[in-house]
Amino acid sequence: MRSLSRRELLAAAAASSAAVRGAPARGAAGKLEIWDLHCHLEGFEGNTPGEKMAAMVRFAGRVGIDRLCVFMGYPFDYDPTPETMRAQNDQVLEAVGKWPHRAFGFVYLNPNYPEASLREFDRCVRDGPMVGVKLWVARRAAAPELDAIIERAAALRAVIFQHTWFKVGGNLPGESTPIDLAALARRHPSVEIICGHSGADWERGIRAVRELKNVSLDLAGSDPTSGFVEMAVREAGPERVIYGSDVGGRSFASQLGKVMGADISGAARRLILSGNLKRMMGPILRAKGLPL
Predict the structure, then answer these.
(1) Is the pTM of this model over 0.70?
(2) How does pLDDT run across 14-32, given as a tens digit for each residue?
(3) Which CATH number does 6-17+32-288 carry?
């Protein structure tokens, strides 16, 4: 299959985008629906969560992105206290609350505080509008402290997203690799978990989780190098690959380029850009009465 040139990619994105400030048009001929798994408020201009979110929506509209999954407030905190967790989740609640037709919130939790994390999950997901869980670098995914969080999230079919990375100079204390995530996934074989960044060193990351049918691969954050998407589809199958950008640390356009320029089928591209995430999020969205 022929890859799209940069000119063709930008033309397709421009054609698919509706008004910058509103929801992208649906049902338009040739429109690829796009859901972005991986978005942060940090990195966008604005003095409030609402202002940052408005900037994110404006840029997303330019390239035809329909929905945005937003997690973690600002400034980033590697090992947030319960008070910081709550404050950052309040920032996300404020941001996505202004754009219910465009954005979903994931609750940011810290397994170093298991009981506080469960209370925060209940506040934001069970009793609130959030639909997923974000786990970052405070505690490695292989640790048993994550189990109660995974079980609580799975009971409500909340999406579970775990950051992973292979760093040449060594990971941060508590920072997971895909190998750590694989250990967690094996302990919870019936629970779907997303491998954030595919480990960044994606060739190693894909190999670490490819045999685990309950693990999906997030494409976000790394440079848009040729071959990443093709390997993920080949090794894990297109049903386990999900588009994300990692804005505001990366641009929507560079990360979309990975998928739009990949040598994959049109059916695989549709699954990666929205189909897989819609399937994963469908149960909790329906339970909360939120639109798909």
Answers:
(1) yes
(2) 444 333 333 333 434 468 9
(3) 3.20.20.140
